[in-house]
Amino acid sequence: MKSSEEKEFVSxxxxxxxxxxxxxxxxxxxxxxxKDLFQxxxxxxxxxxxxxxxxxxxxxxxxxxxLNTAITLYRKKKKTIDTIEFDGSYHKVKQxxxxxxxxxxxxxxxxAISELNDIEKALVFLYLEDKDYTEISETLGISxxxxxxxxxxxxxxxxKILNP
Length: 164
Prior knowledge:
The protein is mainly α and 164 residues long. Helix content is 68%, strand content 0%. The protein has 2 domains: 1-98, Rna Polymerase Sigma Factor, Chain: A (Orthogonal Bundle), CATH 1.10.1740; 103-164, Arc Repressor Mutant, subunit A. It is globular and about 55 Å long. Residues 14-79 form the RNA polymerase sigma-70 region domain.
């Protein structure tokens, strides 16, 4: 990558790293796994960035890469995926600390979400991020109608889990 592309990537990553943290929170149960998944998603974003054409927003693209990485990792029940060398010190990405105490009140919701399948988790995540159904359908690669139907079903599932 050219130096200007690297700077743009690092800037975009710093501005939008909470997206990655939220994905990690959905698909991991402890801080070490969270950090590992964060690193894997960052590496996959780095590898894929030269192919980012800007047809969609950076955030939509990052959601898609991040969710696909998380789903692939945890569906196959393996802890690593093929990666390239990434010298983080060279790029000096400033990582914000993710405060787990602040999320304690969300534990119940995350517990309910953890009972969903991988695609349902991704759908809820995007919905909670206030993404419209057009962006959700583009990110997940399904039709807008299908996204709406699935979301209604997931809402029903979550109600049953939270209010047995």
